[in-house]
Specification:
Blueprint lengths: L13 H13 L3 E8 L3 H7 L9 H8 L4 E7 L3 H9 L4 H7 L4 H5 L14 H11 L5 H7 L1 H5 L3 E4 L4 E4 L1
Antiparallel strand pairs: 1-2, 3-4
Bound molecules: adenosine-5'-diphosphate and magnesium ion.
Length: 166
């Protein structure tokens, strides 16, 4: 009976997540906080409200609510620029040829399904971090944790993917 449904087991293996995490650590970032989240339609609309009205907005919303995402607060002296450099340019179609070693160049599928997000300025970063980590205080972190991270008094905890202060 050729139409009988059969079953198989599918696992999304850790290498995809692990590969990106490896690139984050290799670049010298400190991981301040991490969380995994499923965004609702409204949450994606809110997060990407700056792109409302653009031709790709609807497909961006559909994509971003399609499954869990991992969100990180990363720290580095050049955090904004360095993360954007490692991600590569927005449009994966051309980036796969022009910057093949970047994340988007390596794993991006389309100009919308381009693997990663990165804040474009310090003020955007503060606003976006507040969106996903409402209890995070940049002032408190700068005072208490930043000096310790900068001195390297921390160790990466792979189970939570955050740097813990020693
Ligand atoms: P970035 O994520 O590099 O900061 P933008 O803020 O301009 O880029 O756009 C937000 C997201 O919208 C992009 O990461 C991508 O998923 C999608 N996007 C942007 N421009 C296009 C485009 N021209 N075609 C399809 N999707 C796009
Ligand atoms: Mg952007």
């Amino acid at each position: 009976m050729k139409n009988i449904l059969k079953i198989t087991l599918a696992i999304l293996k850790p290498d995809v997540v692990k590969e990106i995490r490896h690139r984050i650590l290799k670049a010298g970032f400190y991981v301040v906080q991490s969380r995994s989240v499923n965004l609702s339609h409204q949450q994606v609309e809110d997060f990407y409200s700056e792109h409302a009205g653009r031709f790709f907005h609807q497909r961006l919303v559909t994509f971003m609510k399609s499954g869990p995402i991992h969100v990180h607060i990363l720290a580095h002296p050049e955090a904004i620029q360095l993360w954007r450099q490692i991600m590569g340019p927005t449009k994966s179609f051309s980036t796969q040829f022009e910057f093949p070693d970047t994340i988007r160049g390596s794993y991006g599928l389309t100009d919308t399904r381009n693997c990663t997000h990165g804040s474009d300025s310090f003020s955007s970063a503060l606003r976006e971090i507040k969106y996903f980590f409402p209890n995070f205080s940049y002032e408190e972190w700068s005072e208490k944790h930043e000096p310790l991270l900068r001195k390297g008094e921390c160790i990466i905890d792979y189970s939570t993917f955050t740097h813990k202060i020693k």
